[in-house]
């Protein structure tokens, strides 16, 4: 028991929570935005991989870190354009199209990476984002070093979560997005163009996914390697359901999830005799449990996964 | 510009669709090869030679196509009933590890004619067991099975990693995490002497035919297609939706588990965590390229295997990363989706 207490009372754990949560916050918000407009974006895993690769590659070739993050966002948006072309214009199965985008984006990332870095072995590194101590707050005992000495993209992720919540629930644009996700026919009757809204939401959401991926290579680590996204995209899709499609709860869900992840990482070294794989399984098991618990309770956008064709029911 | 549903779909389009999709995918990856500074046609020629240029490479390609056929069938039967089983990768690994465990811990002493079918069955049952989790979650809690079956892939791989690092670890593998080998008499007989091609290839083709017959000639086949085309209508027509989905899931998970079992018994003889270079995910592409037709799966799997095996040789010669094969295969899924769309719709101004 004292072991558990020591872990929970350590500053390191709580500092890690925000760090682990950041890519999940970006990814979950991105997926949430797409789904609020009625499009399931299973391209997320591949888009995060590509964002991680292209962000790292840009910085490796001399761009500064913010430019790297921006390029990752733009690349994410381009894949969002591809996904909306397939699912909005053509109205294809969002499941299969999304998996196709993921397969393409991740294999394309590996291809480009191998082309630039042909040799296997230790991948080259960059200088990642450094932690920024928020003046005043960071000097608070315990809370300061844990929550207020993060890297800049982490603060940005939290800011985006609040902004997205504001846009979705307090602005006409947010109303148009939610309406398109609930009933595109009604939205059209109100003068909203559901196609445009869906394109916009999927492109913007995918840009956020790209940034989530880039956080991995530009802040959490300092290099890229294949399979580094490790199912984080799928976990984000589960977190959207857990969050009941609300940005505030998505933020909370990502933090809760990251807490368990940071906790199991420390437990691995503290507890002997249990295979480490058991600990590594917990994020995935937790995601499944979260889905099972929340699936019935959550209010799904009613037009999610339904293609919209003008004049067709 | 708008799209208008076609009144009827010409048969030639159905045949032409995958061919056009593959050509489009090859053209698009050709751009990537050209950007990398290699001659495109030469690269594709080398892929073809690498995959079929010699007796050895041809048997190697067909060996690689075997698990792809089975995971492709697994995806095809599930998708037809709109059961989104994306967990073939995990089911593959569970089938593989079940075979390794059963042969080294329980059944290794049985004579080959009993042992091999038993082991294949064990692998299939392991795959079924895994897919029943997402299916149960869908039927009981209405959880979308895509994400749960995907997440289970990671869990299954960690589970395998735990076993081959623990109870099933081969003590003779120099500390490398690798399962104990299955005994020699449990290995599948070769189909072609002095090659790696084993009878698993024939089994996969036979199963494609069986699945085709099941889907086209049996009540269950009709019910599973009805469940996919219109679940509500199917219920009104008296289709027991839950029970049909359970059967579809068992067939799909069983095929994926069998793929893992056959890969162990046919090629490797033991399990490592890189036994599958993404056979489960590639199976999705194979199924879509075949337009979910079980017989088409055979050809689609051979195409995919050609890309993977051929890219190895091409990569050594031209320095293009082997990932180009993954890119082409993924692109062919996207182009196939688009091509399929245009078999159903035409453009009207």
Question: Which SSEs are present, and which pair or pack?
Answer:
The complex is a heterodimer of chains A (313) and B (349).
Chain A (H helix, E strand, L loop, with lengths): L1 H7 L2 H26 L7 H17 L4 H25 L4 H23 L14 E3 L9 H5 L1 E3 H19 L1 H11 L1 H6 L4 H27 L11 H11 L4 H24 L5 H19 L19
Antiparallel strand pairs in A: 1-2
Chain B lengths: L1 E4 L5 H25 L4 H13 L2 H26 L7 H19 L5 H30 L3 H20 L35 H18 L1 H11 L1 H6 L4 H28 L10 H11 L4 H25 L4 H22 E4 L1
Helix pairs in contact in B: 1-13, 2-3, 2-12, 3-7, 3-10, 3-11, 3-12, 4-5, 4-6, 4-10, 4-11, 5-6, 5-10, 7-8, 7-12, 8-10, 11-12, 11-13, 12-13
Structure description:
The complex is a heterodimer of chains A (about 325) and B (about 350). Chain A has about 325 residues and is an all-alpha fold. Helices cover about 70% and strands about 0% of the residues of chain A. Chain A has a domain at about 20-120 and about 135-230. In chain A, helix 1 crosses helix 12. Chain A is globular and about 65 Å long. Chain B has a single domain, classed as ABC transporter involved in vitamin B12 uptake, BtuC (Orthogonal Bundle). Chain B contains 13 helices and two strands. Chain B has helices at about 10-35, 40-50, 55-80, 90-105, 110-140, 145-165, 200-215, 220-230, 230-235, 240-270, 280-290, 295-320, 325-345; strands at about 1-5, 345-349. Chain B is globular. Chains A and B meet through helix 5, helix 11 and helix 13 of A and helix 6, helix 11 and helix 13 of B.
């Amino acid at each position: 028991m004292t072991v558990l207490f020591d872990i929970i009372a350590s500053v390191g754990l709580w500092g890690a929570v925000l760090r682990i949560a950041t890519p999940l916050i970006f990814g979950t918000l991105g997926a949430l935005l797409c789904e609020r407009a009625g499009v399931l974006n299973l391209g997320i895993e591949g888009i995060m991989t590509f964002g991680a690769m292209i962000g790292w590659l840009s910085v490796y070739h001399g761009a500064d870190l913010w430019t790297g993050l921006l390029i990752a966002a733009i690349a994410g948006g381009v894949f969002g354009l591809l996904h909306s072309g397939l699912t909005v214009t053509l109205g294809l199965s969002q499941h299969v199209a999304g998996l196709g985008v993921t397969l393409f984006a991740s294999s394309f990332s590996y291809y480009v990476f191998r082309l630039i870095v042909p040799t296997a072995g230790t991948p080259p590194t960059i200088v990642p984002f450094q932690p920024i101590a928020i003046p005043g707050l960071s000097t608070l005992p315990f809370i300061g070093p844990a929550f207020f000495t993060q890297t800049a993209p982490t603060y940005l992720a939290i800011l985006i979560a609040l902004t997205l919540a504001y846009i979705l629930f307090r602005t006409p644009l947010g109303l148009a997005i939610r309406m398109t996700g609930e009933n595109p026919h009604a939205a059209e009757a109100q003068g909203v163009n559901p196609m445009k809204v869906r394109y916009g939401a999927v492109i913007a959401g995918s840009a956020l996914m790209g940034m989530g991926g880039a956080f991995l290579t530009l802040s959490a680590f300092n290099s890229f390697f294949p399979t580094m996204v490790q199912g984080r995209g799928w976990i984000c899709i589960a977190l959207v359901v857990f969050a009941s499609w609300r940005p505030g709860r998505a933020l909370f869900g990502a933090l809760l999830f990251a807490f368990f992840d940071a906790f199991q990482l420390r437990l691995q070294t503290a507890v002997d005799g249990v295979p480490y794989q058991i600990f590594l399984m917990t994020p995935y098991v937790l995601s499944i449990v979260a889905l099972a618990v929340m699936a019935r309770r959550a209010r799904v956008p009613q037009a999610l996964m339904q293609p919209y064709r003008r004049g067709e029911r | 510009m708008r799209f208008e549903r076609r009144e009827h779909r010409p048969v030639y389009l159905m045949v032409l669709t995958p061919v056009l999709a593959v050509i489009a995918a090859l053209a698009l990856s050709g751009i990537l090869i050209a950007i990398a500074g290699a001659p495109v046609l030469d690269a594709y020629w080398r892929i073809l030679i690498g995959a079929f240029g010699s007796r050895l490479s041809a048997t190697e390609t067909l060996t690689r196509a075997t698990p792809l056929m089975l995971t492709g069938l697994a995806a095809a039967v599930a998708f037809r009933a709109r059961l989104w089983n994306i967990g073939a990768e995990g089911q593959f690994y569970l089938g593989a590890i079940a075979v390794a465990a059963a042969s080294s811990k329980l059944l290794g002493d049985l004579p080959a004619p009993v042992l091999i079918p038993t082991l294949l069955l064990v692998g299939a049952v392991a795959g079924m067991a895994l897919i029943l989790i997402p299916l149960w979650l869908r039927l009981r809690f209405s959880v979308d099975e895509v994400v749960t079956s995907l997440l289970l892939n990671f869990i299954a791989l960690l589970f395998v990693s735990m076993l081959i690092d623990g109870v099933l670890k081969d003590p003779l593998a120099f500390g490398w995490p690798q399962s104990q080998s299955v005994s020699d008499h449990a290995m599948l007989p070769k189909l072609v002497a002095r090659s790696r091609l084993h009878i698993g290839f024939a089994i996969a083709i036979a199963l494609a035919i069986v699945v085709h017959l099941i889907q086209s000639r049996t009540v269950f086949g009709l019910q599973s297609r009805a469940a996919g085309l219109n679940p509500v209508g199917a219920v009104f027509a008296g289709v027991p939706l839950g029970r049909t989905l359970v059967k579809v899931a068992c067939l799909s998970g069983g095929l994926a588990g069998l793929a893992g079992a056959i890969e162990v018994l046919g090629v490797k003889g033991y399990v490592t965590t890189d036994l599958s270079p993404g056979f489960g995910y590639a199976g999705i592409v194979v199924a879509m390229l075949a337009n979910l037709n079980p017989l088409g799966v055979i050809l689609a799997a051979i195409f995919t295997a050609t890309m993977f095996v051929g890219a190895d040789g091409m990569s050594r010669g031209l320095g293009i990363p082997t990932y180009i094969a993954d890119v082409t295969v993924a692109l062919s899924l996207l182009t196939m989706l688009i091509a399929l769309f245009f078999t159903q719709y035409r453009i009207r101004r």
